[in-house]
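Q: Sequence in, structure out?
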Amino acid sequence: MKNSIRDNEQRKAGIPTIKRLPQYLRILKDLEKQDVETVSTTFLAQELNIEPIVVRKDIASTGAEGKPRIGFTTKEAIKKIEHFLGWDNVTEAFLVGAGNLGSALMGYQGFQNHGLKIIAAFDKDDKKIGQEIHGIKVLSMEKLPNLAKRMHIHIGVICVDAEHAQEVSDIMVEAGIKAIWNFTPVKLKTPDDVVSQKEDLSSGLAVLSVKLASKLGFVDIEEV
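A: Exactly. Output:
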């Protein structure tokens, strides 16, 4: 069973770079399927509408080495980016909150391609406990601490109502979980040795709505 946080190797990249790497990876894998052996920074820059120097620095930060007038080897760039992101190993995770969003995340097969496998879900609702959702068993919250410690689970996914988010986070931290993917609007309070990433769906919807309003001529997005 593979279940580990990335090896303690030196990595230097800003958040904008990290957010762009999956986009490069998607393009590179499409090229690999077409048997394209090398790719230029210019091509990648045009695909993502950014400057070539940004692409060169982003991919170089993963350890991939490009060659003048040739670019990056497609397979090597894929391998380096996946390793940099920790997606070449599958890390097992626990999910709390087996409602609509939690169930949808459990059914998303793409996570395993990105190094994450949700192996168990937890809930306080007696009606959900004991169910299997997309092949994943829903267990009582009471079982989470012991199982997380015993199975060395390092990643937790929170999909509960906002008022219960901090409580669930505290339980995860106490159980030894070191990384929390938070799908609630709450800003969690965690110890310094625990990392968390908040996915604010309302913020994403707000940006989409304003972009639509801008396209329709109702608002100048530069002024928002």
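The first strand starts at residue 38 and ends at 39.
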